[in-house]
Amino acid sequence: MLAGQIAEARIRSPVAIDVPNLRIVLYPDPSLRVRAKDVASVTDEVRTVAEKMITLMFEADGIGLKLTTEISGVTRLLAAVRQTAQRHDVQVDVRGSASGVLYAGLAGGTDSRQVAAVVEDLRAAATPGAGSVVVLTAPAQVREALDMWGPVPGLHLMRRLKDELDPEHRLSPGRYVGGI
């Protein structure tokens, strides 16, 4: 088969998606084991589905975390996630790969003190592997109870740069790491 024929064979017929009835599906739903259709091109329909998925994520009030570590530290970080979840009696779902970047989620409605404790424990576990834990999404009461970014090396340099480029602090005040 020629390269063009291979590429053409990968493009599948579009499948209509019922956007108004799109919903979050949780593990172990069997639909999560079905291979997704390839996206041949980004159309208005694809954009609409992506926007709806983002809206659903924020409406769900779940807590999304990004965990990073050195590649050699992935197993250790996964073990820390399991131990932390047991210690704080919460479910922490993790996905990712052996690249050193994992994504974790806690259910919406998890007590903000529990979330803060989980994040603190995971940050302590990620640090030895030159990693970090960043809160990507969370309900307002959780965001107020913890530092979304965690320790950031070079924060003083970032603040100096912000002062230099935006001396009146008008551009997105307080929206970045360290309240920059």
Descriptive notes:
This protein has helices at residues 3-10, 44-59, 74-88, 112-126, 140-145, 155-165, and strands at residues 63-68, 92-96, 101-106, 132-137. It is of the alpha+beta class. It folds into three domains: 1-60, no CATH class; 61-148, Alpha-Beta Plaits; 149-180. Strands 2-3-1-4 form a four-stranded antiparallel β-sheet, covered by helices on one side. The model is unreliable at 1-14 (pLDDT under 50).
Helical run tally: 6
CATH architecture of the largest domain: 2-Layer Sandwich
Distance between the termini: 54 Å
Cα-atom radius of gyration = 20 Å
Number of strands: 4
- Report strand order across the widest sheet: 2-3-1-4
Helices and strands, in N-to-C order? HHEHEEHEHH
CATH C-level of the largest domain: Alpha Beta
- CATH superfamily heading of the largest domain: Ribosomal protein S10
Instruction: Tally the structural domains.
Output: 3
Mean pLDDT: 85
> What percent strand?
5-15%
Q: Major beta sheet, specifics?
A: 4 strands, antiparallel
Shape, per Cα inertia axes:
globular
Helix content: 25-40%
Low-confidence stretches: 1-14
CATH topology assignment of the largest domain = Alpha-Beta Plaits
Structural class: alpha+beta
Q: What are the salient characteristics of this protein?
A:
alpha+beta, globular, disordered N terminus, 4-stranded antiparallel β-sheet, Alpha-Beta Plaits
